[in-house]
Write a structure and sequence with these properties.
It is built from 34 helices and 34 strands. By secondary structure, the chain is an alpha+beta fold. The two termini are 48 Å apart.
Length: 1039
């Protein structure tokens, strides 16, 4: 292209227009009769076009972005400037390059990025390339892996099946064909494209797909389709398969060249569409778009929503009404039903008076707009884009200089505006951790998840539409999950009572409540603004609580004395939350149950008494670690590892250890109320207490809310209440006798059950395990719980020196084989209460997982290092970095140096980001300045903390006599260090923990409190760090 060429010249010249190029070809008629015009749009013109669209469309934006991580913020600004509040249905990106952590690349209003990038090793190096697609969150789609050919540097493709109506689908392809030698081969690409198109024509699953759109950067210049054989072959392939290439003007324009290499092709014969090219300076490619208009589709009106204004003034009014209420009638009423009715009648009436419901249309908010972009900055962006367009029209040295100077100035202003905006926000939220994290996630581009409910659902081949109809469909689906599963459980020849043993001789009785007990329970409830079925939030209850203590104390005592619970406290509001898959299917949602805060307060008061009773008489299985105060995930891990390593170190020869990880299907939903009440009676909850639980578990109802429309009430027929405080406690009581069913050693963490058994004889071990598994299956049948055998796994733990031929060795439940985890298996590790275990306990999979989390945290810190004050970055480090490396670190932190070294390197990098240091600066002194313990010292701290709790009887009773004390223990507080035959077995908790503890000074061991111990232990470790770099004339520390 000559120096005086311009965009208008390109647009108006046949030499740079595909229609002009093909004017003498066989395809002339196709292009000249096609009723469409492809033209260039500036951002402001594009914005005007899309803001005027007032009827149904299907839109695709395709863009070679050349590094999504590097251009993500600019890309969001481009979307705002070009489309405003209109969101393209599909955004296809090419050359996204590496996506380090996809959670940092969320676009509001879209599903998470669907992407494929090159591997990081070998010739398929993760440099350049890669494709990604954003799809609107109200659009249902399915990836098509069979069509998604991904051959790095040859053809990098994604295909999706997009639903856009009742039984109507569009097949979308996003393709990047690299043009880098020696891999670039248009001929090979044409073969691959033909194969893809042949599959679409021949496969039955695509018979109902009539519309196909293929877009991307093909690196095939259609302006050369008459002169370059393979370019012509590519165009012929499209046209022979009924595809029209819609982009007819150059999409990549340089000072001396113009090419059509970014394509959108479709077989859709409808002429009612637009295509265009948007002038943008983000990349050296222009974005291209395709919009298909549906004339028969009416504009989707915004659905009104119901809201209540809850501000300080209305809360004060509500509190004053309660304060002035005469509660004499309620306090003198000892009939619980009428007393509760009188109380809630007043509360509900006062609530409606103070917080009247209003119906409003939700405001359309452009969430893609960067919050620091002021109207003035948008004006500056328009000026910049005008200078960019002028540079393209007349690429003279003067215009080029003006654009560069203005662009540099604009970039500096944006950085300053962004820095000031976030610094002001962090100052404002310095004492509000929730809003601080909201701001951090805003910067990182993180998203909570998909919350919009589609306006159409498919259920039993029936289309449901309208909020009320969808709410009814959800409610019916959710309420039947438990009963349907319960019906499928086979009958058992065993009775659940056979496993219980002798009944408890004690009797539980609810104690009388007073104001202080209720206030203490209320303070322990999570502060939330979300409302239950009574429309009152926990935060609002806490606000008015001082004026409600007298009637609440009376009502709660009435409930405990009579066993009565009002029906309004047994109703749940269900909110559907999307999991994954098609958005228009009920099966892809999970229910979130919201209860009245009064119900939660009543349960909290009851729960504290119930747990005191259970703990006092030691009624809970000692190896149940879920939902119990003072119990954590590290406790079952320590016990399991201790048993495995002791089996390795068995004096008469190393043992094999089988660990079977049992999975249940919808455990909380299928609990039998009848069995649970019988077990409560067995454990001493009799008479009025049992009646109270019976009333708590029965007569429960639920309704589902969708966009403010509430379904009818449905009865809940089985299960423990979801979202409740007592539900988890009741469930662990239901499975409390499971360990009595077999000879397995059992570890329980809520509904996660691990069964362990060891033996030197492998054949006997498998035979014994099969017998005991049959007993376990009998217990589950007798207790009407459903085993999920497909998700139940097992590992044979053994020393690396123990070779095993697994042919003929298998375990099964009810004739269904259990999947083994191992190096030669499909799955290499099992995630046990958050820790990744492999068959030789190498810890490599867990360390890789931790490294990934730590690297993700570092990515966040690197993006924020120049935006945030140091104290906020320190908070991010503790939340995103330290929390992951410290999780159960006392169990795996002594792994091999070569594995741990990778984490210590990442930790040093994190410190550099926090302190804004150079990439090669020494960090020892900054660890001390920032009060951050190095990885190995974190291991020491956690192991020493564990031992301090052991010495001071602060661990669960399952650890009683876990370690052997030295004879002079009372004086030395030291333990016997066991003899270990192999160095790799020194990870054995009973060895590693003791070794760390015995090295702690006696002064520290005798500290009076855990906090004091941790403080002084950490200080002693930090004192060993260098205050300054001691390297003479250090090149890294030189200014």
């Amino acid at each position: 292209m000559t120096d005086d060429s311009n965009v208008e010249c390109v647009q108006n010249s046949d030499n740079f227009n595909l229609k002009g190029i093909l004017s003498d070809s066989d395809h002339d008629s196709l292009y000249n009769t096609a009723n469409h015009i492809c033209k260039y749009y500036e951002e402001s013109e594009c914005l005007e076009k899309f803001e005027n669209i007032d009827y149904g469309t299907q839109s695709v934006l395709s863009f070679n972005i050349r590094s999504l991580p590097g251009k993500f913020i600019e890309f969001k600004e481009f979307l705002t400037s070009s489309f405003g509040k209109y969101k393209p249905d599909i955004i296809c990106l090419q050359e996204i390059w590496n996506i380090p952590y996809y959670e940092n690349f969320f676009l509001d209003g879209y599903h998470p990025l669907e992407y494929k990038v090159r591997d990081k090793t070998g010739t398929n190096s993760n440099v350049g390339g890669g494709v990604g697609v954003y799809i609107r969150d109200n659009v249902t789609f399915q990836p098509q892996p069979e069509l998604s050919v991904f051959i790095p540097r040859v053809c990098e493709a994604q295909f999706f099946k997009i639903k856009h109506g009742k039984n109507k689908f569009t097949l979308l392809g996003n393709i990047y064909r690299p043009n880098s030698a020696p891999y670039a081969d248009i001929k090979r690409f044409n073969v691959i494209l033909n194969e893809i198109l042949d599959k679409i024509k021949s496969k039955t699953e695509y018979k109902n797909v009539k519309d196909i759109i293929i877009c991307g950067d093909m690196n095939i210049d259609l302006l050369k389709s008459n002169s370059h054989n393979e370019s012509g072959t590519y165009l012929d392939t499209l046209l022979q398969n009924g595809f029209l290439q819609l982009v007819t003007l150059p999409t990549r324009i340089g000072n001396r060249s113009a090419t059509i290499i970014d394509h959108i092709s479709t077989n859709i014969s409808d002429d009612n569409f637009d295509t265009g090219i948007i002038i943008s300076d983000i990349s050296d490619h222009f974005p291209v778009f395709y919009v298909r208009h549906f004339n028969n589709t009416k504009r989707v009106n915004t659905i009104p929503i119901r809201i209540r204004k809850i501000d300080d003034e209305s809360k004060q009014k509500f509190s004053l009404l309660i304060e002035n209420k005469d509660w004499a009638n309620t306090l003198n009423d000892f009939d619980p039903e009428s007393a509760f009715s009188d109380f809630f009648s007043f509360i509900n009436k006062s609530y409606d008076e103070c917080f009247p419901e209003r119906i409003v249309k939700p405001r359309s908010i452009d969430k893609l707009k960067s919050p620091w972009m002021t109207p003035g900055l948008f004006v500056s962006r328009k000026v910049k884009m005008k200078l960019f367009s002028k540079k393209l029209r007349k690429p003279s040295p003067e215009n080029l200089k003006r654009f560069k100077e203005y662009n540099n100035t604009y970039t500096k202003i944006i950085r300053k505006a962004k820095h000031k905006y976030y610094n002001d926000k962090f100052k404002e939220f310095s004492k509000d951790s929730k809003k601080t994290w909201q701001t951090i996630n805003e910067i990182l581009g993180r998203k909570k998840g998909f919350n919009d409910i589609p306006q159409r659902f498919v259920s039993n081949d029936k289309i449901l539409s309208g909020s009320l109809e969808i709410a009814e469909g959800f409610n019916e689906f959710f309420v039947n999950i438990g009963p349907n599963l319960a019906k499928s459980i086979p009958l058992s020849n065993k009775h659940f009572y056979e496993y219980l043993g002798d009944p408890c001789n004690e009797n539980f009785v609810f104690a009388n409540m007073n104001h202080d007990i209720i206030l203490d329970a209320l303070s322990k409830l999570n502060s939330k603004n979300s409302c239950g079925p009574d429309k009152i939030s926990t935060n609002l209850l806490k606000f008015v609580a001082p004026n409600l203590l007298i009637p609440l104390t009376h009502l709660f005592n009435l409930s405990f004395k009579t066993g009565f619970i009002p029906s309004c406290l047994k109703t749940a509001l269900i909110k559907p939350i999307f999991k994954k898959g098609d958005t228009d299917k009920f099966t892809n949602y999970r229910p979130i149950s919201l209860l009245s805060p009064f119900s939660k307060l009543l349960e909290k008061v009851a729960c504290s008494q119930i747990m005191r009773y259970l703990n006092k008489f030691k009624l809970l299985y000692e190896h149940q670690y879920g939902f119990r105060r003072g119990h954590s995930t590290e406790h079952p891990v320590v016990h399991l590892l201790d048993r495995i390593y002791k089996a390795f170190e068995n004096p008469s020869g190393s043992k094999y250890t089988l660990a079977i990880f049992i999975d249940l299907t919808k455990a909380f939903d299928t609990c039998s109320v009848e069995i649970l009440l019988s077990k409560l009676n067995h454990y001493g909850f009799r008479d009025v207490a049992n009646l109270w639980f019976k009333n708590y578990l029965t007569g429960r109802t639920q309704f589902t809310s969708v966009r403010g429309e509430n379904s009818s009430l449905r009865d809940i027929l089985c299960g423990v209440p979801q979202g409740s405080i007592l539900g988890p406690i009741l469930f662990i009581l239901l499975i409390n006798d499971l360990p009595n069913a077999s000879k397995f050693f059992s570890l329980l963490y809520a509904d996660d059950t691990t069964l362990e058994m060891s033996s030197q004889n492998l054949i006997e071990l498998y035979l014994d395990a099969k017998i005991e598994l049959d007993k376990i299956a009998d217990w589950f049948r007798a207790n009407k719980l459903t085993l999920n055998i497909s998700k139940t796994k097992y590992i044979l733990f053994r020393d690396k020196s123990q070779y095993v031929d697994f042919s003929g060795l298998n375990l099964s439940i009810e004739n269904e084989e259990i999947e083994r985890i191992g190096e030669d298996c499909k799955e290499k590790f099992f995630k046990f209460v958050g820790v990744h275990l492999d068959e030789h306990l190498t810890w490599q999979y867990h360390i890789n997982h931790v490294r990934g989390k730590a690297a993700s945290a570092n990515y966040a810190l690197s993006k924020l290092r120049n935006l945030l004050p140091m104290n906020v970055k320190y908070t991010i480090y503790n939340s995103l970095f330290r929390s992951h490396i410290e999780f159960n670190i006392l169990c795996w932190g002594r792994s091999q140096y070569k594995d741990i070294h990778k984490i210590t390197t990442l930790q040093k990098r994190a410190v550099r980001y926090i302190a804004n240091l150079k990439y090669n600066s020494h960090t020892g002194n900054y660890f001390k300045k920032l009060n951050i313990l190095k990885f190995n010292d974190l291991v020491n701290l956690n192991q020493a903390n564990f031992m301090y709790r052991y010495v001071n009887n602060k661990l669960p009773s399952s650890f009683d006599n876990f370690f052997d004390k030295l004879n002079n223990f009372n004086r030395s507080l030291s333990f016997v260090l066991p003899k270990i035959n192999k160095n790799e077995h020194k990870l054995l908790p009973s060895f590693a923990l003791i070794k760390t503890w015995n090295d702690v000074s006696l002064d520290l061991r005798r500290k009076k409190s855990l906090n004091s111990f941790k403080k002084h232990f950490s200080s002693a470790l930090l004192e060993n760090y260098d205050k300054i770099c001691k390297v003479s004339a250090c090149y890294a520390c030189r200014k």
